[in-house]
Specification:
- This protein has about 325 residues and is mainly beta.
- Helices cover about 5% and strands about 35% of the residues.
- The chain is built from 4 helices and 24 strands.
- The two termini are about 45 Å apart.
- The N terminus is likely disordered.
């Protein structure tokens, strides 16, 4: 029968929880190198035949899109150092075995290859860039009545001074906006039929873009979906919906979402319905969807992150402003 190989550090049990080996067969070594651990889904290094989990460096963010940080994780004189799978890496800290440095963290190539995008050519700078996005009702998929969409700068948190506006008096549901080159603000989407919605530009707008359809939700729909998971919606909090994409702009399965305040309830859309038991996104090939999010998110700026797997590297993060009784949409790209 299989059993646990225990850590010889019982006096430091709390700290050892992240360092003890995973479930293994005591009659033989679990691994000979870090890639053996990765092959069974563990972001761990191989130490004396045992897969041992390594903690990654925390992310830091000053607002908007974030990058992984090495502050405090790698000493300044660490030239020539070798980092274990899951540990921090940099130009002077290479990854062990066959792992590669991805987003400042050592990772298995097969885990991150779909996010290793070829650099795009620098687009020609223009005054404005056309942005289009269908907006539909989440349930009926019909255009919304009296739809108004405002384009707002990042620092205009209440959108008191929008830089562009779209009105839809005939209910086409197809938003068309000409926005400044390199725009990185957000859209404030309003209709009496649904909850207010915020859609963030998580990367600068540099070329004409046809965005994926935004499915707006009514309060009744939110309450219905929450009822499926036996959760109560707090109108003083917000709902956040996230989706991660690969280099081909395909919705990515196998993504774990996190939020910096650790106060909201995570969920994932599985077979078209919210699921609070799942821990990663499941891709729906029929509609190119692999979404998740947080129920009852605390209002105010919060860092939302997309991690490749539960213990893998962070694909990307964004610092978004959550509003009460409002739905916030975030797309995370490599």
């Amino acid at each position: 029968m299989n059993s646990l190989r225990t850590c010889a550090c019982l006096a430091f049990f709390t700290a050892a929880l992240s360092g003890c080996s995973l479930l293994i067969d005591v009659d033989r070594d679990q691994c000979s190198q870090a890639s053996d651990c990765a092959a069974v889904g563990f972001a761990a290094t191989c130490l004396q035949g045992v897969c041992v989990r390594q903690e990654a460096a925390p992310d830091e963010c000053d607002g908007g899109s974030c990058e992984s940080s090495l502050d405090g994780a790698v000493p300044a004189d660490a030239g020539g150092a070798i980092a274990a799978l899951g540990a921090a890496c940099a130009e002077d800290v290479r990854c062990e075995d066959d792992a590669i440095c991805f987003k400042a963290q050592c990772a298995v190539p097969a885990q991150v290859e779909r996010f290793l995008c070829e650099p795009e050519g620098e687009p020609a700078a223009v005054a404005t860039v056309r942005f289009t996005m269908p907006v539909r009702d989440f349930v009926s998929e019909a255009p919304l009545p009296e739809l108004v969409v405002l384009a707002c700068l990042e620092n205009d948190v209440s959108c008191n001074d929008p830089i562009a506006r779209f009105d839809d008096p005939v209910a086409t549901g197809d938003v068309v906006l000409d926005l400044p080159y390199l725009f990185t603000g957000y859209l404030d989407v309003r209709s009496p039929a649904v909850l207010p919605s915020l859609w963030y530009f998580t990367k600068p707008l540099v070329k004409p873009t046809d965005a994926k359809v935004l499915k707006a939700v009514s309060l009744q729909t939110v309450q219905l979906l929450a009822g499926i998971t036996s959760l109560e919606v707090d109108a003083s909090k917000g709902l956040v919906i996230l989706e991660a994409f690969d280099c081909e702009v395909n919705a990515a399965g196998g993504i774990h979402f996190e939020e910096s305040k650790h106060a909201a309830i995570p969920f994932f859309i599985i077979d078209g319905q919210p699921n609070v038991e799942s821990t990663i996104t499941i891709r729906n090939d029929l509609d190119n969807q692999a979404a998740g999010g947080f129920i009852n998110a605390t209002p105010g700026f919060t860092i939302f992150s997309a991690r490749i797997g539960i213990d893998g590297p962070v694909l990307g993060s964004y610092n978004a402003n959550v509003r009460a009784n409002t739905v916030t949409y975030l797309d995370i790209h490599p």
